[in-house]
């Protein structure tokens, strides 16, 4: 990244010691500068936390944690941290400065690496990581950007910003701060990381080095995380047929979804890698005699993490060239391993140094090749909802080929492009193909019966089929219990699917659910009825009054919804009240025989009052008059006074 003249850090003296020279890189948490340590007169990398994070105690704690984690490691394959401090409101780290490139830069320039190059880089990373795991440190953010390839051939791991003690493996919100492409399944699903999570990330990096691609891609981070949690990483040889079977097995072992099936730490994987290398690079010669090996002092330093070895009677002088005597018989396994390791590290240093020089010397040609030549990267345009022929024509204009495939889509009409691989904004080399996935429309599914299920169960059933829950209409029902689905309908056309039926992925199902029955308020007082209805979310209003032989005057005879159709919360119920029994016309019984007149009136529900002595001589009597008189009306149950005739004239 070029220096920005507006960057106030350039030229600043930090803590009276570190003179900032230029900006190297900028990340989400900090910016890294090239600086001069004026006290020791050496170049250093100065990592400065972004100002807007300075007040965040969690970020500051992570920043200090990086310094502490890296400072605990003294290993040739781990970037050294020299100092950590605070200058005014600015937190900073002082680290070893390594001129060179990252593994990500190398992959961008070369696409993929050979098996031998992959093994060399992997061994160096595993050596440094093994030291970290031995010290109880989990890196938690292994990726090609954090593997540094120095100009002199050294390979180092950097950026321990997410590191934690290995026995403190329960993650918080920081668990997913690592790059999503390298997260282990347990980090995605449970937020838990230990040394085996680093092994998984290293397995993904190994796949990427061997194939030039990551095993999982997607348009959204959650798509990639889902694949990590549910899919098995394919063998690299399925994409690059020249990858040896031994490296296939190493990648499969490191990326097992179950952490228990992976190497328990980097040391175990390193030992296996050395065995793989011995199989791929057999012992030199047919006689079993090992050649004399000149070991430069740099290579001797790289072996500092190996078991102690004795060569002859005297130890080699530090910084001098060591001469390993050649035995006359095939060496034991440990000596063979040391010879192989030393020869490989020396060769690795040579080819990496040569590689950096080659990159510098071919900068002009590389710029042309990738800028306008056949290796240039073309950005994939947005082709969603475009006809396949038109999309292919757009790609052809950009110098890209196209391939067709099909997929179901609930958002793009059938026959149009639903997605591409790579997706919009991705980059493809000129002449390569972009896959156009043409929509077949929504995927057909079958919705099972939903009526009778609880609302939650019906919703889970719908979403489990990749359909969507539309509206949930809640209505009162005297036949279905509260919370149970009464019916279901397709939102698209309103057709009923209460008992199941064909449907399409991504489309919506509307539910009608029961609120239970409306309370029966007949015979209740108006106040009681109003309170019962209010408890159910209904509104009560008083309507007409009617005569009732059974309901006391003023009480509720019946309640009915104000409008037709299903009753929902908030609807109004009209209360019909009682006026008491209805008045009955009094018939004319004057002149009728006493017993006949009495029967007519009592059959109508009237009560009678009269001189009880009249009953004794009833056959002799007729009814003389009634009070109230005939032709008027009186409520049922009211009393009518009878007066008999005088039998004696």
Can you give a write-up of this model?
- By secondary structure, this protein is an alpha+beta fold.
- It has 7 domains: 13-97, 2-Layer Sandwich (Phosphorylase Kinase, domain 1), CATH 3.30.200; 101-281, Transferase(Phosphotransferase) domain 1 (Transferase(Phosphotransferase), domain 1), CATH 1.10.510; 286-305 and 318-361, no CATH class; 369-439, Trypsin Inhibitor V, Chain A; 444-514, 2-Layer Sandwich (Trypsin Inhibitor V, Chain A); 526-578, Trypsin Inhibitor V, Chain A, CATH 3.30.10; 583-644, 2-Layer Sandwich (Trypsin Inhibitor V, Chain A).
- Helices cover 29% and strands 24% of the residues.
- The strands form 11 sheets. A 6-stranded antiparallel beta sheet has the order 1-2-3-4-6-5, covered by helices on one side. A 3-stranded antiparallel beta sheet has the order 7-9-10.
- A hairpin with a 3-residue loop joins β1 and β2 (18-26).
- α3 (115-134) packs antiparallel against α5 (195-211), α3 (115-134) packs antiparallel against α8 (266-280) and α7 (245-254) runs antiparallel to α8 (266-280).
- The N and C termini lie far apart (138 Å).
- The relative contact order is 0.05.
- It catalyses: L-seryl-[protein] + ATP = O-phospho-L-seryl-[protein] + ADP + H(+); L-threonyl-[protein] + ATP = O-phospho-L-threonyl-[protein] + ADP + H(+).
- This is non-specific serine/threonine protein kinase.
- Pfam families: PASTA, Pkinase.
What's the arrangement of secondary structure elements?
Layout: E1 13-14, E2 18-26, E3 30-37, E4 42-49, H1 57-71, E5 81-87, E6 90-96, E7 100-102, H2 103-110, H3 115-134, E8 137-138, E9 147-150, E10 155-157, E11 164-165, H4 185-190, H5 195-211, H6 221-230, H7 245-254, H8 266-280, E12 293-295, H9 297-302, E13 322-324, H10 333-361, H11 363-371, E14 377-379, H12 388-397, E15 401-407, E16 417-421, E17 427-429, E18 433-439, E19 444-447, H13 455-464, E20 468-475, E21 485-490, E22 501-504, E23 508-514, H14 526-535, E24 539-546, E25 556-561, E26 572-578, E27 583-585, H15 594-603, E28 607-609, E29 623-627, E30 633-635, E31 639-644
Helix pairs in contact: 3-5, 3-8, 5-7, 7-8
């Amino acid at each position: 990244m070029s220096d920005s003249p507006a960057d106030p850090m350039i030229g600043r003296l930090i803590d009276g010691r570190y003179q900032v020279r230029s900006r190297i890189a900028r990340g989400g948490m900090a910016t890294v500068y090239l600086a001069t340590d004026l006290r020791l007169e050496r170049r250093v990398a100065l990592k400065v936390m972004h100002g807007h994070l300075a007040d965040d105690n969690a970020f500051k704690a992570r920043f200090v944690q990086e310094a502490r984690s890296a400072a605990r490691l003294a290993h040739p394959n781990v970037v050294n941290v020299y100092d950590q401090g605070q200058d005014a409101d600015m937190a900073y780290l002082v680290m070893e400065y390594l001129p060179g490139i990252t593994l990500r830069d190398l992959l961008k320039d070369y696409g993929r690496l050979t098996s031998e190059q992959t093994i060399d880089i992997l061994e160096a990373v595993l050596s440094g990581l093994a030291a970290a795991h031995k010290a109880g440190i989990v890196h938690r953010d292994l990726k090609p950007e954090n593997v540094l390839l120095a100009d002199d051939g050294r390979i180092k791991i950097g950026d321990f910003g997410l590191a934690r003690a290995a026995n403190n493996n329960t993650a918080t919100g920081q668990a997913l701060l690592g790059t999503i492409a390298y997260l282990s399944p347990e980090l995605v699903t449970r937020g838990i990381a230990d040394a085996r999570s680093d092994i998984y990330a290293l397995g993904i990096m190994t796949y990427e080095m061997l194939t030039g691609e990551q095993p999982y891609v997607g348009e959204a981070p959650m798509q990639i995380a889902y694949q990590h949690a549910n899919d098995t990483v394919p063998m690299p040889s399925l994409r690059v047929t020249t990858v040896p079977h031994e490296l296939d097995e190493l990648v499969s072992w490191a990326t097992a979804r179950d952490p228990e099936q992976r190497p328990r730490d980097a040391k175990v994987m390193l030992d296996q890698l050395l065995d793989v290398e011995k199989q791929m690079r057999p012992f030199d010669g047919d006689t079993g005699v090992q050649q004399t090996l000149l070991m430069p002092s740099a290579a001797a330093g790289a072996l500092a993490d190996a078991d102690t070895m004795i060569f002859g009677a005297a130890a080699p002088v530090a910084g001098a060239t060591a001469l390993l005597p050649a035995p006359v018989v095939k060496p034991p396994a440990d000596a063979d391993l040391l010879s192989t390791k030393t020869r490989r590290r020396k060769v690795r240093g040579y080819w990496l140094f040569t590689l950096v020089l080659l990159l510098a010397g071919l900068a002009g040609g590389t710029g042309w090749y990738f800028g306008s030549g056949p290796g240039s990267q073309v950005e994939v345009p947005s082709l969603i909802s475009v006809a396949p022929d038109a999309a292919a024509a757009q790609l052809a204009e950009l110098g890209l080929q196209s391939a067709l495939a099909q997929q179901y889509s609930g958002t793009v009409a059938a026959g149009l492009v639903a997605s591409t691989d790579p997706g919009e904004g991705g980059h493809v080399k000129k002449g390569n193909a972009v896959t156009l996935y043409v929509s077949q429309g929504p995927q057909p599914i079958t919705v099972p019966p939903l009526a009778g299920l609880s609302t939650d169960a019906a919703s889970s059933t719908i979403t489990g089929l990749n359909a969507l829950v539309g509206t949930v209409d809640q209505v009162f029902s005297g036949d279905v219990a509260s919370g149970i689905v009464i019916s279901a309908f397709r939102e698209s056309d309103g057709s009923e699917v209460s008992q199941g039926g064909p449907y399409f992925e991504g489309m919506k199902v509307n539910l009608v659910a029961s609120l239970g029955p409306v309370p029966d308020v007949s015979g209740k007082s108006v106040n009681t009825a109003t309170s019962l209805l209010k408890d159910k979310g209904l509104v009560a209003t008083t309507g007409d009054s009617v005569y009732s032989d059974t309901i006391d005057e003023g009480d509720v005879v019946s309640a009915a919804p104000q409008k037709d159709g299903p009753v929902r919360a908030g609807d109004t119920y009209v209360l019909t009240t009682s006026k008491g029994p209805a008045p009955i016309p009094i018939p004319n019984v004057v002149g009728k025989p006493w017993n006949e007149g009495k029967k007519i009136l009592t059959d109508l529900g009237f009560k009678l009052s009269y001189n009880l002595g009249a009953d004794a001589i009833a056959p002799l009597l007729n009814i003389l008059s009634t009070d109230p008189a005939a032709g008027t009306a009186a409520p049922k149950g009211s009393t009518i006074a009878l007066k008999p005739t005088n039998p004696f004239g």
